[in-house]
Fold this protein.
Amino acid sequence: MRFRHPDGSTVHLAYCTNVHPAETLDGVLAQLRDHCEPVRRRLGRDRLGIGLWLAKDAAHALVTDPSALRGLRCELDRRGLEVVTLNGFPYEGFGAEEVKYRVYTPDWADPERLEHTTSLARVLAGLLPDDVTDGSISTLPLAWHTACDERRAETARTALRTLAERLDALQELTGRSIRVALEPEPGCVVETTRDAIAPLTAIAHDRVGICVDTCHLATSFEDPHTALDDLTRAGVPVVKSQLSAALHAEQPHLPEVREALAAFAEPRFLHQTRTSTAAGLRGTDDLDEALSGDALPDAAPWRAHFHVPLHAAPAAPLTSTLPVLKSVLTRLVGGPHPLTRHLEVETYTWQALPPELRPRGRTQLADGIAAELTLARDLLTDLGLKELP
């Protein structure tokens, strides 16, 4: 979906396909048929943006076979779909029964992360619509915190500098400008937007910026205005933003609140949980750990890294951090010029919701994704953007 900002520029809105597990190119093509096109039709749109997730095997197939890349581009066109951004965070196995810490490997100190992201950039340059010259790729925020000493951190920064040089060369070759965005996430070396400033200014290249994920920002109790002000002052570009909402518990000391939270503690993904105290941010790696005994202080609200559907906040006594998303979006695109032009709804946890909230089958999933995009569209038009055909 495309929108005209009052300054005349185009802002792109997509939804991320990591909600549809697929490791191979055939699986990606099936996603377009079974999920993406039905969402477009529900929205009544001739064109729908998707934030494509390409696992290692699918990316390799596309970058080594020009005919396969052309075939994917033709299939996108045929189904009324377009790609300006990729989710390059998960490497493989994102649809496994247990993902947890595996999603953080390989990290940016591993040469495979550089090679995979380079492949994604080459693929994206071939998938961009004819009238679009700028693409974006969100990626792992360096590494999980326990896997990164200073030596590995410097290796990671060197890899990102190398990637930036490759992206420069790619633009010279193709005329397409691809940028990569570190996506701060709780528990990682770059957990917050503030954590991103030092490594990104050390890399000092405008090809490498930040992806503001509004669930992650809210989980870390970051103030949206402070975070974006800090990035602006540091000259760190917001390459893209993922529109998502975290799980919020206002009174985690109450038994009924803990019972409600326990329904979201599930075995597939990590749900890092945080609370803000006078001594600073406190947290656990997962929600079940927070619920066990006194692992986390409960005198103040808790937030958990669980991407809940944007249009459907959990039932009381829980809620979501949708207000944080709205504040971020207002700052990103509500001013005289957009701070980013790539927006991506990213709720990959539909099948990890408590059983009674999960979509039953493709039809209900498509309905839910379309409802999220409708909410995002309405927020954008309320900010003065005009939806384009």
Observations:
- The longest strand covers residues 10-16.
